[in-house]
Amino acid sequence: MAERVWDKFLTERDKAVFAAAGYGVRQGFGKRPALLIIDVNYAFCGDRREPLLESIKRWRQSAGEEAWDALPVLQRLIGAAHERELPVIYTTSIRREDNWDSGSWSWKNSRSGEKVGAATNYRGDDIMPQIAPGPRDIVIRKQKPSAFHSTPLYDYLTLLHCDSVIIAGTATSGCVRATATEAFSHNFRVALVEDGCFDRSQASHALALHDLNAKYADVVMSGEALDYLDSLDKGMFDLPKGL
CATH code at 79? Predict the structure, then answer.
């Protein structure tokens, strides 16, 4: 079996336990998927490609070069979804200018009071221009990790008659994980695109993917996801008109 990104972080006991317990069975893709692009904005990518520890000086949530490595993968996924006229749903954050509504986000980080991107002309919650939403895409603004929490995401997926989601974006161990777990809880089939997800922590990225693959989702590479998207019929969904 090919080595997975998480293997180097697991003990031999861990591997034996998960195998014996029966976790990690492949569930397969659904028939009517939506592509979810989670929080790929300046706050998590920075405004230019640079090493992580440099990027987080100005963008404390940045994933540095890993974020920029994922952007071409996301471009291909989005392009394939557009070609097949599939739903593409983006999330990004929303905050008051005075940051009062950050709520519990302010409790676990010593830099939470900083104004994101203060030294630039970019807003942290602006989606990266390399993958900018098209006129028929859907953008959801959220304040907590899960894209479902206090948003219309579930209602939109129901309206579109989706049975599954393909998720990419950031952070793997945070908002991607929370969204994937809640999608599972709503009985959607969930696939995560490994090379389309990124995190500021390599260990957190790998182990979050491991846990999700074990219990809640299929973790696949973008090539497999693209082959699946290309196999779908065109025009299955009643998408926004994009006027």
Answer: 3.40.50.850
